[in-house]
Amino acid sequence: MQPTANAWRDVLAKSVLFFFGIALWYKGWSFYAYYLLPLAWVIDGGLGRSRKTVREPLAIGMLLLCFVLALGILWSDHPDLGFKVWRRYFAFLVFIPYLGLLNKERLPWAIYGALLGYFGALLIGLYHWLIMGVQGIPALGMPYTSFSSTLGIGVILTLYIIKTSRNNGIRLFLWFLSAFLLFIQFNQDARGALLATLLSSLLLLFLLYKTKTKTLLTVMALVITVITLFASNSTSFQERLMRAKNDIQLSWAGKYTTSLGYRLAMWDVGLYGIAEHPFAGHGTGAAARYFEETVETYKGGIYRDLTEFHDTYHYHNDWIEIGMQLGLLGVVTYAFFLWSWFQTLKRHQLVVLAAALLCFIFLSGLTDTLVFFRQTFYLLLVITAIGITSHKASEQFYSTKYITP
Questions:
Q1: Fewer CB within 10 Å: N-end or C-end of the chain?
Q2: Which N-terminal stretch is annotated as signal sequence (predicted)?
């Protein structure tokens, strides 16, 4: 009876891991996957192993961030909005049961699910771009900023796997795949995500090939050539440059009803709000409402038209967003969260990938609030969990291989 029960739990765990990789892209499905994961984890005996999983630095950083955000609801003028903000962050604790379910035997199911989900979303995105002429993936509720971020993560990951793969055929395919993903990203309107991808990719290549000067120079020259080619032949990219130049000119003229002008105004008001309550902020959930209430009078009301230009959701900057809500307490906690993410990957011999991904997260967070990109954040957590388990599996393989009887 016991072997049958174990086999049933294993099938459930594999199915849920596979399903989550697909479901994370669609909000309707991810709702069910979000509850199935912890349920399967508990059935699999995950509570008994939870201490080991929670000891991962990333899990500690997540729990601390969620705790501080919950604490911030106590001094928020809008506790109902505070709960909604907290719930966004709390949802990413799904990383704990996801990692807890993974092991060497279940790893392929998680990888296949993640690949199927990613390339399925990519195909839908291509259809929207090429056939419908639409940015992002409206069918999956992904704005172009979120879609561009997932493309950037794909570029970084494929460039990393190229170096670690020993199969020349796979390497060649991955070079073409990374170039293809970058080409699509050049044709999305997200400037911040594209810049974060380019800088993070260059950092990754430097760290991978820094001991081989000739190879490093060759790879860098190739990548820069491809980037230049894409930039010069992308109508969307050229339009973005012209739009950015126009936005800057309008901002200097005091007109902020543009993409760049709106961000500059948000950051200006946000920094002013942080200065008012520098240590504990205005409370979880109070950030967006503060902007709407302040723009009417701040600097003579030069930003008052922006509430009609765009609905206020966040401050388009991770650090200003968390600083507005929790002040220095939130900024330090968020910095610790990113540091703990780096430490988790580092302790599993993924320091180069950690540097590239955390660079991408940091740079993306300067122009957008990453927590609002649900699919992007889930994808990063899935990559992290799969990376951890892959390293454990390889360690187990080599320790078994070289044990003398």
A1: C
A2: none
- Tokens representing 163 are 């170096």
Residue that has been written with the tokens 């187990």 in this structure: 396
CA 151 to chain CA centroid, nearest Å: 11
DSSP string, 272-318: HHHHHSTTT-S-TT-HHHHHHHHTTTGGGGTTTTHHHHS-----S-H
Q: Please report whether residue 229 resides in a domain.
A: yes
Cα–Cα distance between 377 and 400 in angstroms, integer?
35
Question: How many angstroms separate the CA atoms of 279 and 298, rounded?
Answer: 22
Residues 312/294, Cβ–Cβ less than 8 Å: no
Rounded Cα gap, residues 358 and 349, in angstroms: 15
Residues 224 and 180: beta-carbon distance below 8 Å: no
Structural contact between residues 317 and 369, judged by C-beta atoms closer than 8 angstroms: yes
Domain total in the chain: 1
Q: Tell me if 258 is assigned to some domain.
A: no
Q: Which domain holds residue 337?
A: 2-247+309-388
pLDDT per position in the chain (405 positions), as tens? 466 778 899 999 999 999 999 999 998 888 899 999 999 999 999 998 888 899 999 999 999 999 999 999 999 999 999 999 999 999 999 999 999 999 999 999 999 999 999 999 999 999 999 999 999 999 999 999 999 999 999 999 999 999 888 888 999 999 999 999 999 999 998 889 999 999 999 999 999 999 898 999 999 999 999 999 999 888 888 888 898 889 889 889 888 988 889 999 999 999 999 999 999 999 999 999 999 899 989 998 999 888 888 888 889 999 999 999 999 999 999 999 999 999 999 999 999 999 999 999 999 999 998 888 889 999 999 999 999 999 988 876 555 554 444
Give the separation between CA 25 and CA 37, rounded to whole angstroms: 15
What's the predicted TM-score (pTM) here?
0.94
Establish if 9 belongs to a structural domain.
yes
Nearest one of 117, 116, 110 to 13, comparing CA atoms: 110
- Cα–Cα distance for residue pair 295/285, rounded to 1 Å: 18
